[in-house]
Amino acid sequence: MGLRFRKSISLGKGVRLNISKRGVGVSAGVKGARVGIGPRGIRKTASIPGTGISYVEEKSLSSSKKKRNNYNGASGTEGSNNLRSSIPTQSLTGTHWVWGIILGFVLIFNNPIVGLPLLGTSFYFFRKKMHEPQNKSKTEYNKGVSEFKKNNLDRANSFLDRALQYDQSNHMARLLLTNIAFSQGKYDKVLANLEKLPDAVYDDPSISFAAAISNFSLKSYDKAIPLLQQLNNIEGYQDEVSIFLGRCFLEKGMYTLAVESFKKGPVLKRTMNPVVMEAKYWLGVTYIKLGDNKKANTQLSKVYAEDVNFRDVARYVEELGF
Fold first, then answer.
1. Minimal CA–CA distance to 190: which of 209, 170, 163?
2. CB atoms within 10 A of CB 280
3. Looking at the domain that runs over 200-322, which CATH code has it been given?
4. Domain coordinates of the chain in residue numbers?
5. Are 134-197 and 200-322 in the same CATH fold?
6. pLDDT tens digits, 21-65
7. Distance between CA atoms of 182 and 191, rounded to whole angstroms?
8. pTM value?
9. Which residues is 26 bridged to in the sheet?
10. Under CATH, domain 134-197 is a member of which superfamily?
């Protein structure tokens, strides 16, 4: 059994100085409720005298352990709305010193000899922590999140840029900037931000999808194709992936592969919606490239019957002469 040492000295009016092998601490309060600061951190105790019922809350003064970032991107409009409502804020480190400030302020009236140094020390370290680059970055990030949730994307963008100026490793700020850039069609910025993020972000299919569409929009088809192929079997992505994969092959002049990809999509669905019309339209265009005007008309006429203003389907139908 190890040797233990502890001594508690009353300083009057509910204030005690506690001395142990771990260091020196101070506590204050009345019967049933006390707040103390010591080597282990802040300890708050509340109890109902005579019942044996008590509640204890402890908080370490050491920095919080770093948590792994969860990279949750957005897939389409629905994903973007979900992200806007659920994007988390970041907790500042060093806020526990507020308890020292409160306790020091209380002690000033009971025992200024202990209260004043405690108040001064706690305020000094609290202010120091708040001015650290990581905390400044988190503050700007939280402002950006607030503006993002209000759909003030330009203001959110400014705050998030500032967050990265304070701390380049704030991956949540960069990820949210990437989401904003993608929604605004700034695909070069999307790819520039993704290059600075950990490879683990690509475990999220929405990030891979954003990277693929950005590469496609910038005509980097060889980079977009493998990203899209990785998403082929992921639920919720098949229809859009098959369309963009087919369009990549179409742009590269690989028409047979384009047809195969479009046929894996929603072209066989009877209910016409924008995604189905998109698939049928591009399949029809590909058949024209292959010289099969009959099959092209089969697809394009269905789109024309649903919406004569869909892309330039009216021109194709007129040229085909069916």
1. 209
2. 27
3. 1.25.40.10
4. 134-197, 200-322
5. yes
6. 555 455 655 555 565 656 556 665 655 455 444 555 566 544 443
7. 9
8. 0.67
9. 17, 37
10. Tetratricopeptide repeat domain (1.25.40.10)
